[in-house]
Write a structure and sequence with these properties.
This protein folds into two domains: 194 residues, Vaccinia Virus protein VP39 (Rossmann fold, 3-Layer(aba) Sandwich); 78 residues, rRNA adenine dimethylase, C-terminal domain (Helicase, Ruva Protein, domain 3, Orthogonal Bundle), CATH 1.10.8.100. It is elongated and about 65 Å long. It is α/β, with parallel strands linked by helices and 307 residues long.
Length: 307
């Protein structure tokens, strides 16, 4: 997917007479509010970043769009002009009321608690957001597990998290989030954003990633996530040991670990890998192949998928 000139449907979302910074100051004065650190509110004020995010969202030709944390609307008006239906998920009651008063569809809810599967959204459906950083990783995990995935995502992350999402085999920040995200999505880096592109300015740099869904042939994404977390349970330990420890713990079967470890070693060796391989050494395709061999061991387990 290319991210060149904007679609013809974009008219004024980012071609506003006011700059994003001036618009933010005006709305904050009107509402007499300050950003809430507890909600991760760092409002985007870079006109060039806003333009490029809207262009990227437009390339998916969405009929429906979801924006998490619209804040003071750096993206909101532009997004509304790209689709038939825009749904805003806003946890701040003040801002939720602000957008309702302007006839936008608002759901006052934590995006991690919203019933994504139960909401009838016309396709193509795209998620575009300057995400609150504290929910960004969990949101990527949740959307990767959707039985019917979104048709695309354009998301702002803390740069460190974005680097983890796109990390490659052998890199120190390569982990279950990297493998999960890259298994279910083709991911491109759209832009870098510095502290000065936000108000108030965060202490960290940011990065926007564009996600296009893939079809990895995994029938049970939740079991795949459990499998990945087991693989990376203790990064310095051998993967077979991690898998055995996780499988034994989840089933409360004392004495089963040596048997399970031998089973996992056998399957790893059958793939042509060393029995002492660590998870950071595997490529994406090797995780998928190993999961098809041993994934039934992690099916139907209880517990949080995010932790």
């Amino acid at each position: 997917m290319g991210f060149g000139p904007p679609a013809q449907r974009i008219t004024r979302g980012f071609l506003m007479k006011q700059t994003a910074r001036a618009q933010l100051v005006q709305v904050m004065k009107e509402l007499r509010l300050e950003a809430r650190k507890s909600l991760g509110q760092n409002f985007l004020v870079s006109d060039s970043a806003i333009e490029r995010i809207l262009r990227a969202a437009a390339r998916f030709q969405p009929r429906s769009l979801v924006e998490v944390g619209p804040g003071l609307g750096a993206l909101t008006v532009g997004l509304s002009e790209l689709c038939e239906r825009l749904v805003l998920l806003e946890l701040d009651a003040r801002l939720a009321e602000y957008w309702r008063s302007r006839s936008f569809e608002v759901v006052e809810v934590d995006a991690l608690a919203w019933s994504w599967r139960l909401n009838s959204l016309a396709r193509p459906c795209v998620l575009a957001s300057n995400l609150p950083y504290q929910i960004s990783s969990s949101l990527v995990v949740d959307r990767s597990l959707d039985p019917l995935p979104l048709d695309g995502m354009v998301l702002m992350f803390q740069k460190e998290v974005a680097q983890r999402i796109r990390a490659r085999s052998g890199q120190s920040n390569y982990g279950f989030l990297s493998v999960l995200a890259q298994t279910f999505w083709d991911i491109e880096t759209l832009l870098e954003a510095g502290p000065g592109d936000f108000y108030p300015s965060p202490k960290v740099a940011s990065r926007v990633l564009v996600f296009t869904p893939r079809q990895p042939g995994i029938a049970d994404p939740s079991s795949f996530l459990r499998f990945l977390k087991a693989c990376f349970l203790h990064p310095r330990k051998l993967m077979a040991s991690n898998l055995a420890a996780s499988a034994t713990s989840s089933r409360s079967q004392p004495g089963a670990q040596p048997h399970l470890r031998s089973f996992f070693i056998d399957e790893i060796v059958k793939m042509g890998l060393a029995e002492k391989v660590r998870a950071q050494q595997l490529e994406l395709s090797q995780f998928v192949e190993l999961f098809h061999r041993v994934g039934s061991t992690f099916a139907g387990e209880s517990g949080s998928l995010r932790s």
